[in-house]
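Hi R.,

As promised, here are both runs. First protein below:
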Amino acid sequence: MSTEIKRGRLGILVGGGPAPGINGVIAAATIGGIMEGFEVIGFRDGFKWLAAGDTQHYTKLTIDDVKRIHSTGGSILGTARTNPAKSETSMHNVLDSLQKLGVKALVTIGGDDTGFSASHVYRRGEGKIRVAHVPKTIDNDLPLPGSTPTFGFETARHYGVQVLRNLAEDARTTARWYLVISMGRSAGHLALGIGKASAATLTIIPEQFRGAPVTAEAVADQIIGSIIKRLADGSAYGVAVLAEGLIESMGEKGLISAVPGGHLERYGKVVRDDHGHLRLGEIEFGRLMKDLISHRLEAMKIKSTIIDKDLGYELRCADPIPFDIEYTRDLGYGAVKFLLSPDSEKFGAIISFVDGKMMPLKFENMLNPKTGRMNVRRVNVDGESYDCACHYMIRLEKADFEDQAQLNKLANIASMTPEQFRERFGYLVGMK
């Protein structure tokens, strides 16, 4: 590493939701920073206390403090979703607090929103504070080069697959359907990764609608079509995985329209966080979809037991698998290396690795000039990887409507004539 900076403090903070591997970044950045002459301090609860002008909520970090935390889940510094860029006062407090504490360099660990806040610290600090942001989210939706994942994703998928496999066996044993809502605010990477690797019956993600309006009714019909097709094959069970990002794609109005009488409060509150995002966890999306599907199945005289299950909180603080342990060590090391480099005097950056080489990505190149936030990396639904996922799902396809014998069988299960079934479900595959 360069030895250009030898004085002052290196600060570390964590923002946004938890992800496996956070402690690995903290450990690597702490050890690397101390070895390069920094005094390292960790701020509690992200930007929360700094934004309030509180300079007391920090901890001096030593090598002994962090040398064995790299394989543990959670965050020894906690985390919070405070957005200091939301007001002039909050941002002033952050910069003033960092200056008072003698912080010359800052490592932020977080997702899109924390990266946005970090970019403001660098820009408003006018070079007085060097900033390196380590991208973190189990959603895997940050636009890193190529197919580079965000840390935490691989661990979350690993444990998510274990849960899905258990649910699939329970579904088979008890002849029921599980409706699993997987975390993933804006993209379907986690839902698809879990669904594909666990051989779920089908997975539904926002990207598959290719920009067309997403409705709860269309999502329900896809699942109902899968239930009917499974019954036609003699199976009364299955597991459907839904990305929670479908909630944002539907929007508040879309959710209200799906609820009888528009009483969305039956399924939770519509609440937004400091960054303006819907708090998806406040809405019982799985229960809403279960009720909608059950009501439609009853109208077709189809009996099916459906259990809704949210999947995400169980994954966020899991102990990281070796992939993320190694990856986060690279990222923490890379963050310190960047902060010690001449480049960090010129720009703040998001730390990334490509082919084993650290690649700092300038904030201004990663942030959307209109929104000020990073663009979302979505699932490529035009690639062979997604085609492969769809190939092994059980869902209505054009062939089901073109084969008269199959169409008759499906229609009979739904208590419809073939013409009625085509009219009712054909739109799902462009056969109406």
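And here is the second one, sequence first, then its structure tokens:
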Amino acid sequence: METLRVGIVEDQREIRDGLAALIGGTPGYECTGAFRSVEEALGPLAARPPQVLLLDVGLPGMSGIEGIPLLKARCPGLAVVMLTVYNDDERIIQAVCAGACGYLLKKTPPARLLEGLREVAEGGAPMSPEIARRIVHLFREHRPPERAPYELTPHETRLLQLLVDGHNYKTAADQIGISVHGISFHMRRIYEKLEVHSKSEAVAKALRQGLVR
């Protein structure tokens, strides 16, 4: 079996060291580095990129969710798995929309955690049972309203849809046919209308309200 390279970003030293020992001590797995923050991880991860990254949500400085796009930009092809205590709808949606491939809770048994790492490397999307149930509930129970009161223009709605589909500002600008500066202008308008403060919040709210698919 090919050795799976795994990185860790976790601010609690005891948990970080335990994960590094588990991964590094298991045949078929290699811990390429363990870091306490996204900022600390960016340089070393690019120099020695893992295939899979275990990423905490609550971190000093930049949150794990905010760090996903930066980490993936530094390490193309990186599969990010959130490992956290948070199981609320908001963080789950934000993490998935930001590019996470899996979402596991910290109470996940070690054997299942290792299986999840291998699963995501093979194209799967490992999730703790509680998280899978939350996602099923979100899609089953949250119906789009008949009319969303945000008065988004067709241009703004299309931009939100492109972001949901994984585009960044540059590729979205290419799709719409405007400059990146123009995208930034439209995003400021979207933030105001949706009463949010970041791209991940805007995307999460748009999905919850049925503004995009």
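A quick note on the second one: The first strand starts at residue 4 and ends at 9. Let me know what you think.

Best,
J.
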